[in-house]
Amino acid sequence: MTELLYQTDSYLRDFLASVTGVDEANRGIELDRTVFYPGGGGQPPDTGTLAIDHVVYTVKRVQRIDGRLLHIVEGNAPLPEVGAAVRGVLDWDRRYKLMRTHTAMHILCGVIWRDYGAPVTGGNMEPLSGRMDFEFETMRQELVQEIEEKINAEVANARPVRVKLLPREEAFKIPDLIRTKINLLPEGIEEVRVVEIEGLDLQADGGTHVHNTSEVGRLRVVDYKSKGKINKRIYLEVEP
Question: For residues 227, 229, 233 and 234, what is the CA-based torsion angle, rounded to 10 degrees?
């Protein structure tokens, strides 16, 4: 089992670890601990490097395969031996942009849930841009402008962002913990990671976030579309 260091500290940029397994078919390296996020909740997996026995492997993604968390590497260099020492380094510029973007998505979700009572039906993001789908019957330009003003007010409010790992039973006592239309949490999960934007948003989430909404920066709603009778998509951009 890989220790997921990012779950409690999203700001870790590098780490030391040991190789616990390799997957030749997928060119994957399994470690005893990692700061690399494997993707999920609309957030893409991290990229970066692993330095092992004088070889620097480029990590193009991290992926769960058959229950194992594998760092998928590029190139043809032989994979390392089990037990080898590792120094991993994130592509921090990309990761931090994704942290800002993911928190921006939670700000958007929190405002729309608080003020309009609309649940999320889907979402996706890339560094500094993303989209979220909500259960709105109608969407118009005036409403979009209003939403943009409200989310930027929450950035300016400099709300703290906190992460907790809670026992499943305790977590599910929280009202509206699951904001997506479908509960995506695995049935057997015993611990739930909860992300809170103080005074605005509280929901189950596995991704990486900034410490304060002020770090997100200026937000722009750049487009919106109807994706069905009661499904409206909002496209968001974060300032560089």
Answer: 150
Q: For residue 226, what are its two tokens? A: 């109807």
**Region at 53 (left for phi over 0; alpha for psi -120 to 50; beta for the rest):** left
Q: What is the pLDDT of residues 66-113, one digit of tens each?
A: 999 999 999 999 999 999 999 999 999 999 999 999 999 999 999 999
Which amino acid belongs to residue 59? V
User: Hey, how many other C-beta atoms are within 10 angstroms of the C-beta on 174?
Assistant: 15
Q: pTM score > 0.70 for this model?
A: yes
Q: What is the mean pLDDT of the chain?
A: 93
**Helices assigned H by DSSP within 92-221:** 92-116, 141-156, 168-171
Query: What is d(CA 129, CA 19) in angstroms, rounded to the nearest whole number?
Result: 34
User: For residue 181, is pLDDT > 60?
Assistant: no
Extract long-range pairs of 168-177: CB within 8 Å, 24+ residues apart: 168/192, 171/204, 174/202, 176/113, 176/202, 176/203, 177/202, 177/203, 177/204
Q: By the 8 A CB rule, do 48 and 31 touch?
A: no
Q: Which H or E element spans position 211?
A: none
